[in-house]
Amino acid sequence: MTTFGQGKAVLFQGNGQPLDACDAPLPDLKPGEALVAISATTLCGSDLHTFHGRRETATPAVLGHEIIGRIVALSLVDPPRPYDGTPLHVGERVTWSVCVNCGDCFFCNRDLPQKCEHLLKYGHQSFALEPWCGGLASHLILRRNSAIFRIPDHLPDEVACPANCATATVAGALRHAGNIDGATVVITGAGMLGLTAAAMAKEAGAKVILVDREQTRLEEGAAFGAAAVIQVQPEGESLREQVLERTEGRGADVVFEMTGAPAVARRGIDLLRTGGQLILVGSVFPTEPIDLYPEQVVRRMLEIKGVHNYAPQDLGAALTFLAEHGNAYPFASLVGAEFPLSDCEAAFAYAATGKTFRVRITMDS
Ligand SMILES: [Zn+2]
Ligand SMILES: [Zn+2]
Hints:
This protein is α/β, with parallel strands linked by helices. Helix content is 24%, strand content 25%.
């Protein structure tokens, strides 16, 4: 008998295999660890990619990394602290960075903690090697060096849940763009990332032009702060003209590319003003290459940046943004369905229909 008894985990065993719900003992905590009772997990696009075999992961694995929960226990030796350094207490409602980094390797020392040489990512690990590490479970063990954040009390679960992936990723992208106060920003892709980026860019002082192929996805654009929405036509010519019309013929200061579609990334270059920045966020799966004219990059003095995942400070910025401005935008409406942990199969099936941006799993208890 262990100190904490049994927990429940839903194991992903590979594409096409049934999910396996099992009970297993919760191990004692190692120094620097904390035990969390998971309250809710939202399914992210990358969970769906893994579930449907479009993305590799070690199996069996507990998927899910957009997680919130409450602290059940803290290790007595070297108890973990939140990112702000204050003491952590049992019962506190928390979330944490998806990435756990060592803090002392080549990349950690170069401000790329998400590329740590000893990286662990919640929701992406083998249950055999790293148990209690994903969101589709009753419990999770917060590893040593996790960047833990308290969730402000007034933030509802459905708004807080995607913060440590979608909102933090957008916060990281905005940080890389620098000061966008007064800038005209084009966001390509009106999904979870794009709508979140619209709201965050608006609050950072930018004029937001939100672009998507599908009119239905643009309907929420204004509610998320977009000054203009543009439905992309297949030929593409009119998009550039419409952006030029709204920028006194110069082009956008910044383009945030959220779709991952290579043609959209390519078109993003044409939307920039001289000296503009293209921030690539959505390209997290292999695609065809795009044609790039180096002379254009040089003469127009363009910057092209890739931003993958985020650093702990970005999750802090995401939570601060949601606490201050989250209620001004319909973030809660992005999480459109809820399933119990015992029905994860149905949750994945519903998520695959695309009827909602996020599906939430809540713990049966
Ligand atoms: Zn994610
Ligand atoms: Zn490291």
